[in-house]
């Protein structure tokens, strides 16, 4: 059986997945904020299951509470699959009506979703003392038990996960999960120290560098750029687009685009430009003296700037959290200019 696990994007959401990964090996993880993204992620999961009809699948949803119309859609779609079941574990009180309507919906507002997930699976597969401690720390901050002895440590864990946006989860889902699980694993090393919250906060920068470091030490900024450029370079054909006769790479909300874009273009000289799309239709263009991206930005995105660094607005773009949809929109749009 394979578990397709959709969870929230905060500490509690990743905590649920950390628990599941402790008990199961054949898992594929997805994360979502509220709104349209939940449905986009669910569509991805359904497509994967439909492509593997001989594989038994569990769709596990944690720490998000879809509205009733979405729950109804999910229930109907899973009912058509002979090889899949659906289970939702949540703690948001707003899901009470859905819990009463759907047998696959388990709700308990007295515990965070990570604790619900741990309690559910540990009853079947056994307790884990260190994992249980992690769960209690997450529970203390997520449902705000300010008098709990773990509360201050929970605050630091929450801050670490919330601030760790270095690996874009839309483009690099597997690497993002590896990073989040690495941070949680490293945090466990501090749980039994004196004043662990202070020790963990002091060590956070070093822990992050440890994940991104390969051969030599460097600034965190440079280590992150090297890590992401390596991934982009290894999979560049999947991200390649064209503007007229120029070859470029398309990324989504990758962050630090000047450093990463320049590093990629230097290490991949066959590419002429680097294009980043951000939420809100904003685009950033970078080049390395092989195309004037200020003219590119002006012509295609009603923008401008410098020859090697420009920006604009992709006015017809419909925001998505699925890279393939972002890619197809952009590719189709730029093809209009290729024909001119």
CATH class designation of the largest domain:
Alpha Beta
**CATH architecture label name of the largest domain:** Alpha-Beta Complex
Give the low-pLDDT segments.
Answer: none
End-to-end separation in angstroms reads 51 Å
What's the overall average pLDDT, rounded?
Answer: 96
Trace the largest sheet across and list its strands.
Answer: 6-7-8-9-11-10
Q: What share of the residues lie within helices?
A: 40-55%
Give helix and strand order, one letter per element, not per position: EHEHEHEHEHHHHHHEEHEEHEEH
Q: Largest sheet, described in full?
A: 6 strands, mixed
Give the CA-based shape.
globular
Radius of gyration: 22 Å
* Alpha plus pi helix count: 13
Q: Pairing-aware structural class of the strands and helices?
A: alpha/beta
Number of strands: 11
Beta percentage is: 15-25%
Number of domain modules: 2
At the fold tier of CATH, the topology name of the largest domain is inorganic pyrophosphatase (n-terminal core)
Task: Report what the structure shows.
- The protein is α/β, with parallel strands linked by helices and 340 residues long.
- The protein folds into two domains: 2-161, inorganic pyrophosphatase (n-terminal core) (Alpha-Beta Complex); 235-338, Diaminopimelate Epimerase, Chain A, domain 1.
- It has helices spanning 11-23, 36-51, 68-79, 96-101, 113-125, 129-142, 151-163, 173-188, 196-212, 220-234, 257-267, 293-301, 323-338; strands at 2-7, 27-31, 57-62, 84-90, 105-107, 240-243, 246-252, 273-277, 282-287, 304-305, 309-313.
- A six-stranded mixed beta sheet has the order 6-7-8-9-11-10. Strands 2-1-3-4-5 form a five-stranded parallel beta sheet, with helices on both faces.
- Helix 1 (11-23) links the parallel strand 1 and strand 2.
- Helix 1 (11-23) runs parallel beside helix 5.
- The longest helix has 17 residues, at 196-212.
- The radius of gyration is 22 Å and the shape is globular.
- It starts with a strand and ends with a helix.
